[in-house]
Structure formats: structure tokens, C-alpha cells
């Protein structure tokens, strides 16, 4: 049976790809791409073979691509660096396509797209789950800074190897070899042995190729936020021929990316994790040519009257005719004076596979009563000794889907505490216990070592600085109900009401959780993101007509 990670292209498919690429022959062994290469090419083997070697494992051969097979993975659709060496053997003839040529072929030919993308995603999954390698990260398992980097790399599907200096002898040896001390932690060691001490997320993204640079031009649409709404908008806009840039401050997925398992999303009867859903949508958007860059955090927006100019916190500037805010809402922090001390070392805002190992046979707490809290409780219950769901209200089903409530009530190691809140966190270096208080004032200390909090919803609108109309909580107002006196005085659009997902400025749209009145569900966010593109088209049509009249 053919391994779906290494399928063969048909002769017809190869003939189609030949129209885009070039054929090269080699009379000796040659490395066609190397570990760490950015924008490395895609190869189809016409004769001979390509061996894929792992430099982190003494150049051990992982797989040999033979006639009609192909190299590559999903990183080729973005700026991500090569993770291995590829050696074409003497006597080999290859068909070479650049990443841009590959993306065009994938967009134009559905059968080739299906075959390649399925193989690419499976290869990525194999690398992340079965191989040890990639970027080395040295740090303490109890460090907030180290956890932040690990969380970023996990959610962005960056291949890395974490070495805990509190437990790993290899980590201690590396510190000695590079003449570094624990004061330099966390430390990144790249594939070419470049050392980066106390790295920012920007430098992590730059070294892995997740952060992109954009050419200096005016794009059709800039999407700010790569949650379900932003990714849906990116897919639909790019697939309909618009030039799209999508940015996010952390990782694809937004709030949904923090969900360990979504079971009520249409089309996935057995459920799908938020991170898997986000990763597939991320690849899907790039398949159609969307430019996605992470982390870009919006600092400010200027509206020139003809286009928008975004200033990002990393100094980058992006210009676009239309703009879409899909920045969602983030979970609030518990109102505890020492909570920052434990973030990353006992207090977390998402429950992913990275957290599961640290929760094994431990007592875990989950604060909140929404679906994300319920999904986290059930996911963690498979690993933890006990899971305690802590809810300030008195009805678990008030905001949580019924299927989650029923499973929580049936789980033998999940305990629900109603009318209860966390009032104190205890522990010297890592969280060791929490103090709970009931509505009657009774206080109980629980030996909870990992606390996951899913409370509140603060909209991600600080960067707007009053540019568009928001409600008293900061959620963006959209649609014709915006008062006339609150509308922008933009001269070229002075006589029309906003479309349903348009803000007080023409061409500025808001979708998903950041929008006032939105339904806080994955499906509705995807629906808004996709629906908004028809309104973007209408705006761009009006803009082009008005600019033509001016000429």
C-alpha cells in the first residue's frame, strides 16, 4: 500500500508541472537544498533519486524520493526554512519549481493541489511528532519567558527541541560549550549553530521563517488577526483574486486555537483541535497566495482617504485599500496580585499537548464556564489525577454546550465547584496550591499545581485609538445603525451608510469576536469572515469607480 506521505504523481500531472518548471540533470551527487535554506525549491524526480538527510542525526537518511515522487512540505508555501538536507544522486534528472511557481500550480490544478497538500500536511505532522530536532531551545521549565517561546513555537507548528536546564545534562553541556550561563536563558540555537540569548518572539519568528517582509505597494486587503474569522476572510479573498496580507500578533487560531477539541463544528463529526483547524486554514490561505506574517502586532492605523497605513510594533508598514479587523477577544487575567509570577509556571491561558505532560497525575484547576473551559477540562482529565472546574456562577450549562456539560458530569475525575472563585495563588517558584473561596466566605486550599483560566472577553482593540466607533467595552460597532454623526467625514464616501460588517470608516470592516453583537462561536466567526469579502468587493468596486471619475 502506498504511503500517503510519499505518493507518486501521474504522468499527466508531471506534464502539467513541466509547463511551470525547468528540468535539470546531475552527473554527480549534489545538495539541492540544505537545512536552514529559505525559499527552497520543489523537486519532482524524473529519473534517479533524492535522499532526505537529517543533519541533527549524523545525516541519517529519512526517506529516499524516487521516480515520480516529490520533495517538500507545507513550509514551502511560506518563508519557513528547510528542515533537512536534500541530496540528488549522480545520474538524477529533476523537475525544479520555485515556491511561487509551485503556489501557482497548486492554485490552478485541483488534483495536484489535493495530492501535494495532503502529503505536505502529513509530512509536517510526522516531523513534529516523531522526530527530535529543529531549533534548539534552552531554558527552564519554570520560566515564564521560556514558556512564552515554547507556546509560540507550538502554536505556529515550528519544529524545535526543548532542553530543560533543570533536568537535561545536554542543556548544561551546551551552556558550557558556548560559554554561556543561566543568566543568558532562554537561548535559541539555530540550525547553523547561531546562538540567540534572551530572544524576542520576533527573532524566533525570523529564524524560523514565520515572519515575512512585504513589498512596498498598496494591497487590496489587510486582515488583522488570524483567528477563524481572519483566516476565513483570507481564504475567500485570496481565492477570489484579491492581493491579501494577513497578520497576527501570536499564532493562527485566535481563541479557537486554544481549544483542545471542537466537536460541534460542522463537518467534523469526531471533532478537531483548534490548532489543527487553524493550521489547515493557514495552509489553505497560503495555497491561494495570501501573505501571512506572524508576529505582526498592530500599533496604529492611519486612514489617508484613499488607503489605510498600518504601523506595526516591529517597525513594519503595510498599506492597503481595505482593512479588516479580526483581532478577537482575549481571556482576562484573574484579579490576583501575584498572578504574573506564576504565568508559564503553573498558570496558563490555553490547554494544549505541551501542557499535558506537566499535568500527568497532577491536580489541575480550570477556571471558567464557557466551551473553551469545558473542552480544556475534558482534555486534561485524560492526563491529570483530578480536574477541578471552578465557576463563580451557579449553572455550568449557562454558557457551555450541553454535550460538554454531560461529559463533565459523567467524568469520574472532574469535580465542579459552583459559586467559587480563586482568591490566592501559593508556591515558591512554581504554583503549588490555590486558595478557593465560596460565596459563603468559606476558604479551602487545594493542591492545584496547574491552573488554566478561561474567563472574560476583552476585545483586541487597543491599537485603534479611537479611529472607528466602539461600544463602552471596546467592541467595534458595524452596520447601518451607526449614527450619522459618528460616521467618517471621508469626502469620497460621504453619502452612504456602512454595510453590515463595515465600521464608521468606509472600507474598514470588523468580523468575529471583536465586533459588537457577534455570536462567540467558531462557525459564526468563519461565516462572518467569508461573508465580509463580498462587502470588500463592493467597496473596492466603488473605490475604483470614484478614482476613475477623479482621473
Describe this structure in words.
With 551 residues, the protein is of the alpha/beta class. Helix content is 27%, strand content 25%. Strands 12, 13, 14, 15, 16, 17 and 28 form a 7-stranded mixed β-sheet that branches. Helix 7 (228-239) runs parallel beside helix 8 (274-287), helix 7 (228-239) packs across helix 13 (522-550) and helix 11 (371-381) runs parallel beside helix 12 (402-410). It starts with 10 loop residues before the first helix and ends with a helix.
Discrete helix count: 13
| Overall radius of gyration | 25 Å
Helix amount, in percent? 25-40%
Sheet with the most strands? 7 strands, mixed
Short structural summary:
With 551 residues, the protein is of the alpha/beta class.
Question: Topology, pairings included?
Answer:
Blueprint: H1 11-18, E1 22-26, E2 30-33, E3 42-47, E4 50-54, E5 60-65, E6 85-88, E7 92-97, H2 99-108, H3 110-130, E8 135-139, H4 144-155, E9 160-164, H5 169-177, E10 187-189, E11 195-197, H6 201-208, E12 218-224, H7 228-239, E13 244-247, H8 274-287, E14 291-293, E15 298-303, E16 308-312, E17 317-325, E18 329-332, H9 339-342, E19 347-348, H10 353-356, E20 363-367, H11 371-381, E21 386-390, H12 402-410, E22 414-417, E23 420-426, E24 433-438, E25 443-446, E26 450-453, E27 455-459, E28 508-510, H13 522-550
Parallel strand pairs: 8-9, 12-13, 12-17, 13-14, 17-28, 19-26, 20-21, 20-26, 21-22
Antiparallel strand pairs: 1-7, 2-6, 3-7, 4-5, 4-6, 8-10, 10-11, 15-16, 16-17, 18-27, 23-24, 24-25
Helix pairs in contact: 2-3, 7-8, 7-13, 11-12
Amino acid at each position: 500500500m502506498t504511503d500517503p506521505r510519499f505518493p507518486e504523481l501521474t504522468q499527466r500531472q508531471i506534464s502539467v508541472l513541466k509547463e511551470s518548471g525547468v528540468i535539470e540533470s546531475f552527473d554527480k551527487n549534489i545538495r539541492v537544498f540544505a537545512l536552514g535554506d529559505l525559499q527552497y525549491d520543489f523537486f519532482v524526480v524524473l529519473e534517479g533519486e533524492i535522499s532526505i538527510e537529517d543533519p541533527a542525526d549524523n545525516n541519517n537518511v529519512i526517506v529516499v524520493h524516487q521516480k515520480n515522487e516529490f520533495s517538500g512540505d507545507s513550509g514551502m508555501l511560506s518563508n519557513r526554512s528547510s528542515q533537512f538536507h536534500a541530496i540528488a544522486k549522480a545520474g538524477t534528472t529533476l523537475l525544479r519549481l520555485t515556491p511561487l511557481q509551485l503556489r501557482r500550480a497548486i492554485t490552478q490544478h485541483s488534483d495536484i493541489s489535493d495530492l501535494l497538500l495532503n502529503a505536505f500536511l502529513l509530512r509536517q505532522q510526522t516531523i513534529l511528532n516523531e522526530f527530535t530536532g529543529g531549533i534548539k531551545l534552552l531554558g527552564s521549565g519554570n520560566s515564564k519567558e521560556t514558556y512564552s517561546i515554547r507556546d509560540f513555537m507550538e502554536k505556529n507548528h515550528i519544529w524545535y527541541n526543548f532542553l530543560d536546564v533543570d533536568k537535561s545534562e545536554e542543556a548544561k553541556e551546551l551552556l558550557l560549550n558556548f560559554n554561556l550561563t543561566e543568566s543568558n536563558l532562554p537561548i535559541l540555537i539555530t540550525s547553523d549553530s547561531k546562538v540567540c540569548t534572551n530572544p524576542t518572539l520576533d527573532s524566533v519568528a525570523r529564524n524560523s521563517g514565520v515572519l515575512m517582509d512585504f513589498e512596498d505597494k498598496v494591497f487590496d486587503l489587510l486582515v488583522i488577526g488570524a483567528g477563524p474569522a481572519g483566516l476565513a476572510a483570507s481564504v475567500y479573498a485570496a481565492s477570489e483574486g484579491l492581493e491579501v496580507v494577513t497578520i497576527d500578533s501570536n499564532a493562527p487560531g485566535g481563541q479557537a486555537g486554544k481549544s483542545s477539541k471542537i466537536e460541534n463544528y460542522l463537518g467534523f463529526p469526531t471533532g478537531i483541535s483548534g490548532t489543527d483547524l487553524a493550521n489547515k486554514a493557514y495552509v489553505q490561505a497560503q495555497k491561494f497566495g495570501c501573505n501571512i506574517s506572524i508576529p505582526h502586532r498592530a500599533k496604529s492605523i492611519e486612514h489617508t482617504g484613499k488607503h489605510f497605513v498600518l504601523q506595526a510594533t516591529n517597525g513594519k508598514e503595510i498599506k492597503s485599500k481595505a482593512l479588516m479587523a479580526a483581532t478577537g477577544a482575549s481571556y482576562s487575567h484573574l484579579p490576583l496580585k501575584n498572578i504574573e509570577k506564576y504565568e508559564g509556571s503553573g498558570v496558563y491561558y490555553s490547554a494544549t499537548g505541551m501542557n499535558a505532560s506537566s499535568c500527568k497525575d497532577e491536580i489541575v484547576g480550570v477556571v471558567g464556564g464557557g466551551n473553551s473551559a469545558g473542552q480544556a477540562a475534558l482534555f486534561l482529565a485524560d492526563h491529570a489525577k483530578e480536574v477541578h472546574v471552578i465557576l463563580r456562577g451557579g449553572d455550568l450549562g449557562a454558557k457551555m454546550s450541553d454535550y460538554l456539560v454531560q461529559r463533565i458530569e459523567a467524568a469520574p475525575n472532574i469535580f465542579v465547584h459552583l459559586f467559587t472563585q480563586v482568591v490566592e495563588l501559593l508556591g515558591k517558584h512554581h504554583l503549588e496550591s490555590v486558595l478557593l473561596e465560596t460565596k459563603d466566605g468559606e476558604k479551602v486550599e487545594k493542591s492545584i499545581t496547574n491552573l488554566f483560566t478561561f474567563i472574560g472577553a476583552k476585545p483586541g482593540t487597543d491599537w485603534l485609538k479611537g479611529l472607528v466607533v466602539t461600544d463602552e467595552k471596546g467592541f467595534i460597532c458595524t452596520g447601518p445603525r451607526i449614527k450619522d454623526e459618528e460616521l467618517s467625514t471621508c469626502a469620497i464616501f460621504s453619502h452612504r451608510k456602512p454595510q453590515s460588517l463595515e465600521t464608521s470608516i468606509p472600507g474598514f470592516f470588523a468580523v468575529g469576536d471583536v465586533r459588537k453583537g457577534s455570536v462567540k462561536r467558531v462557525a459564526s466567526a468563519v461565516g462572518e469572515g467569508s461573508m465580509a469579502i463580498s462587502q470588500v468587493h463592493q467597496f473596492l468596486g466603488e473605490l475604483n469607480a470614484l478614482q476613475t471619475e477623479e482621473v
